[in-house]
Amino acid sequence: MKGVFILGATGSIGENALKVLQQNSNEFSLTGISFFKNVEKAYEISQKFRPKYIFNQYNGNEKVFDHGKMLSDQEELLSLLQSEEVDIVISGISGFAGLNLNLVAAKSGKLLLIANKESIVIAGAHFIKACNDYNTKIIPIDSEHNAISQCLDHNYDQKDIYKITLTASGGPFVGKPISELGKVSIEDALEHPNWEMGKKISIDSATMVNKCLELIEASVLFDIPASKLDVVIHPQSILHSMVTYVDGSTIAQLSNPSMEIPIANAMRSTKRLTIDFKELFIEKTNLEFFPLSLDHNEIIDLAYDVINLGGTRGVVFNAANEVAVESFLSSKISFPKIFNVITETYNSFDHSNMCNLTEINEYNDYARNMAIEVIKSHTN
């Protein structure tokens, strides 16, 4: 029986991970969970799955759990993750807020399944170094990156790869120019046609910023230059990524849109896990692929710039986006203004090669403040 600890158990990744655990309860047990402010859902999870340990990331929660030992700080959490009680760590925390706990998970020395792309975008070198120093094995559970990992040859050589292509559904506004989206509502932007996700990632999908973050993450995780990374629009969300080799062979991974599938794939050891899934191609299915629209190229080009320059670029890009999305969800700016906030904030910073986590936090604060000023300039 393998012990699993889920960071961010109350989010969409945590919810899907729990479904996989439930379907394979003869092989896995829930050792522990972490949560932020969703106390009620964390309590429901504790009642249903009876985890031995519970870590509260937010000190303002005072609800008493009648099952499970409460962990008091990150040092206690790290000690548990490094213990024999935990075999797999699943990280489903989103945003910059997940950085510190993901760095803790990187020191676990266990199998780390990660869906927090922002940590890798803003601190990829630190994250990878921590994993290497502590012999932590990383397997991505974003559907695109998990697909890439399945399509890559074992012990692949970068020279053998011609191109890695990530697919994007295009979100709820696929095919529509940004200039026509000035009056879309928050509800419209959250209405993803294929995936059920949290608010932040749903907006990121609608703006294509999620694909920017995924390009940067792919470069870090697979050590692939920007010149070998590409994006195509694929509205059906069935083909998740493909790897084209220099001999002309293209290997692709296909599955219906469900986060249970990449999570189950990442959790496997010598054999694949059995889960319930909807079979492909049992009815007429069209797979469509389109190039990016011209007005989305500017935001995608920023992702390539982050990959090529590194340093503070990822911190600034991520911070600007988080502030812009928060402002849109608070009805402070219109949907197209998200792009203005990101590009203007990003272009206002000179490039710098950061060397420590203190500077990462400082640049995050600088960029967030600059993004707020940009928003004020657009709303005054």
Outline the structure in words.
There is one protein chain. The chain folds into two domains: 140 residues, 3-Layer(aba) Sandwich (Rossmann fold); 203 residues, RNA polymerase sigma factor, region 2, helix turn helix motif (Rna Polymerase Sigma Factor, Chain: A), CATH 1.10.1740. Helix content is 44%, strand content 15%. The longest helix has 23 residues. The protein starts with a strand and ends with a helix. The mean pLDDT is 91.
The count of helical stretches stands at 14
Beta-strand content bin? 15-25%
Rg computed from alpha carbons, rounded to a whole number of angstroms: 20 Å
* Overall helicity: 40-55%
Across the major sheet, the strand order is: 4-3-2-1-5-6-7
CATH structural architecture of the largest domain: Orthogonal Bundle
- The structural domain count equals 2
Name the CATH superfamily classification of the largest domain.
RNA polymerase sigma factor, region 2, helix turn helix motif
Shape: globular
Assembly type of the chains comes to single chain
Class computed from helices, strands and strand pairing: alpha/beta
Q: Quick one: how many beta strands?
A: 11
State the major sheet. Answer: 7 strands, parallel
What ranges have pLDDT less than 50 throughout 5 or more consecutive residues? none
Q: What's the rounded overall pLDDT mean?
A: 91
User: Remind me, CATH topology of the largest domain?
Assistant: Rna Polymerase Sigma Factor, Chain: A
Encode the helix/strand succession as letters: EHEHEEHEHEHEHEHHHEEEHHHHH
CATH class of the largest domain: Mainly Alpha
Give the termini distance in whole angstroms: 59 Å
